[in-house]
From TrEMBL:
Residues 2-252 form the NmrA-like domain. It comes from the Bacteria. One of its GO terms (molecular function) is aldehyde dehydrogenase (NAD+) activity. This is NmrA-like domain-containing protein. Signal peptide: none annotated. One of its GO terms (cellular component) is cytoplasm.
Length: 310
């Protein structure tokens, strides 16, 4: 049986990758600081949960024994990215190098500036606009460099903002709410401006399907996902639920004031630019590898309800 180590299985990408790997018949191992109870109920008892932490080299080495892939779903809080992101990743990269593992890594759109590149594919040059974007470029470069000098291989799957029941603190979970029978949507910018989203079960199933294809040593794929505006979202929700939908402006000024006391909110402010211009991801390369399966996508409203957003 194929065996995979999933780090960050209590988070969004890690959880759905673990679930998709199990569905495909993989034996899944993860590190859990809090034991099985730190995992979602759907994973408990189905994965081997070893005590440990992703920053502990010895624990990761032990967990990776016998594995052929390492799914990297570790994501420090925004305000700790500069301190922790590269050092945490380096632990896993070093182990992948030593054991010849394939790393599956979740790319995001921070690497790009939508004002300069509103449509991106796998060949679009990185042009980060923020410190977080530069850190993500640095992380992906670190992975590529390790692949170039070792037997390690890597698969990066890039997508927009997450949608998923087990994805903590997503944008839509903050923007959508229900009050007194009304659905309320907060708009981070003009309500007609489109934004890219991805339903994590679809992303994970595509990533796992790619593992059964013939890949190069270092491959990046873009997952197109959904692209919609808050105005289009309001129309869809009203059509499907029949409930009144109210749109209002996102309280950026309040967030800015609270960021003086809560450092993690500074990271939210830093990413505001991604809401001011649309940016779409091309899924043509993924379609070339997976064919019609790459185009299969959970309908948006179904994704929202399954994620407990509606």
């Amino acid at each position: 049986m194929k065996k995979a180590l999933v780090l960050g299985a209590s988070g969004g990408f890690g959880h759905y990758m673990a679930a998709a790997l199990l569905e495909a018949g993989w034996h899944v191992v993860t590190l859990c600081r809090g034991g099985q109870t730190s995992l979602a109920p759907e994973l408990r008892g189905k994965v081997d949960c070893l005590q440990g932490d992703a920053k502990n080299t010895a624990a990761v080495i032990k967990a990776a024994l016998g594995c052929s892939i390492l799914v990297y779903g570790v994501n420090p809080p925004y305000h700790k990215w500069r301190r922790d992101s590269l050092s945490l990743l380096s632990v896993s990269v070093d182990i992948c190098r030593e054991q010849g593992l394939k790393m599956v890594f979740p790319g995001n759109v921070y690497n790009f500036d939508p004002a300069k590149t509103p449509h991106v594919d796998e060949n679009t040059a990185f042009n980060p606009r923020t410190e977080k974007g530069r850190m993500r470029v640095e992380m992906e470069s670190h992975i590529r460099e390790a692949v170039n000098v070792s037997n390690m291989t890597a698969l990066i799957i890039r997508c927009g903002d997450y949608i998923g029941k087990y994805a903590p603190s997503t944008w839509l979970s903050e923007l959508l709410s229900e009050q007194q029978g009304n659905i309320q949507i907060q708009c981070p910018d003009k309500k007609e401006t489109k934004h890219s989203f991805a339903y994590l079960p679809n992303v994970a199933s595509s990533a796992v399907a790619l593992l059964d294809t013939e890949l190069g040593d270092f491959e990046t794929f873009h997952f197109a996902g959904y692209e919609f505006s808050m105005s289009e979202l309001a129309t869809e929700i009203k059509k499907k639920t029949g409930k009144p939908v109210i749109t209002k402006n996102f309280p950026w000024l309040v967030i800015r004031l609270f960021s003086l006391l809560m450092p993690k909110l500074k990271g939210v402010i830093e990413l505001r630019y991604l809401w001011q211009q649309p940016m779409s991801l091309s899924g043509k390369k993924l379609e070339g590898y997976l064919g019609a399966d790459a185009k299969k996508q959970t309908p948006l409203f179904e994704a929202l309800t399954e994620s407990d957003l509606i």
